[in-house]
Amino acid sequence: MSDTTQVLDETALLARVDTADGREILDAATREVIGRAPVHTVVELDSAIARARAAQPAWDALGHDERSAILNRVADAIEANAEALARVLSREQGKPLNGPNARFEVGACAGWLRAAAGTPLEPEIVIDDGENYSELHYKAVGVVGAIGPWNWPMMISIWQIAPSLRMGNTVVVKPSEYTPLSVLALLSVMNDVLPADVLIGISGDREVGARLASHPDIDKIMFTGSTATGRKIIESSAGNLARLTLELGGNDAGIVLPGTDPAAIAEDLFWGCFINTGQTCAALKRLYVHDSIYEEVVDALARLAHQMPMGNGLDENNVLGPLQNKQQFDVVNRLVEDAKANGGRIVTGGAPAPGLGELFYPITIVADVADGTAIVDEEQFGPVIPVIRYAEVEDAIASANRLDAGLGASVWGDRDDARKVAPRLESGTVWINGHGGIHPMVPFGGVKASGYGLEFGVAGLKSVAVPQVITG
Question: What is the mean pLDDT of residues 220-246?
Fold first, then answer.
């Protein structure tokens, strides 16, 4: 552990994690090789877990105050290296430096670390009636396995790492195969400050991920990704009874109420749909708009779509980037083509943009579609929004609730009217006149097939701990 903050440029940062015989990782925008990620084996994973297990008691013994002080120094190190981290992230993931993108994500990493470090978690007095006295304490669970996604690879990894370390756990991180370099670079900066083996990154394939979930020395799994993979993790963890926090797929619905001013909500609505070029679990993916203002809302979104520059993320002018990988690009293209074939009206976009690069797809607004079409019923996870017309609010509520996804939802319009609708939506979070906004102190998690368990704030600290009742 060092108290001297090293400040690295992009080249030096990549050199720390680049492996000569590793797997090539391509720039999402240019498709040029930016580095080679290590491909660790199951044997190397087993060794990493053993090292994390050995390091955990001493880390736990430091106590909350000392661990929090260290986490604040880790945040300092991230901030000192923020530009290099953002550039690696922009190239590997594709998101632009500016807007709610790469620099924003790196800043959020430091912010969430500081929030975890500064959140108090005191013992709770359960009963104190003169004859009985009991307290509820929360203790470290042990070794946490953190399996992250490719869309917000750094930030979501920190959502898993920060509370785990604060509570006295050690963490073994497996980044997505699509975005390993940015996460390994982040861990490298963090490990300049942390004690040895408290935080270990393992970059491997699905076999390594499956072993992490089923390993007998893993006490907790935190996973963000698809519902299908989440189900496999549940099965894999049955043998070791690892505790689980699962943030799974979403197909978030938004309802625009009658009487709403389209101009007043347009920009927030746009970014609710298209932050990170739509590659966000809790992005707005189905928009239900009352018939009386339907065309106005569609037009307002279209005007913004035409104004937002898309291109290489390292260009300071751009705020929208490519899809991160060919697999997701193909999903988006398939859903748009299906919508066209089923009568959808393409208002903007609607076809790949090869002039920008291989994986670029323009902002696409699809009007005049209905429940039951693929673009409504399947999660696009890209720069596409279907806009569905409704006549009665009751019908919009029923439509929003009809799918098995329940991560987020939103209601747009008069606040009092929206607050009447919000509790009736089946989702872990319902935003009013916004969508996707998160805060490190506000619990976040899904219901139905969007997973279970809470992150952030006090609830997030408790989720990476085990309760202990002390009576007497």
Answer: 95
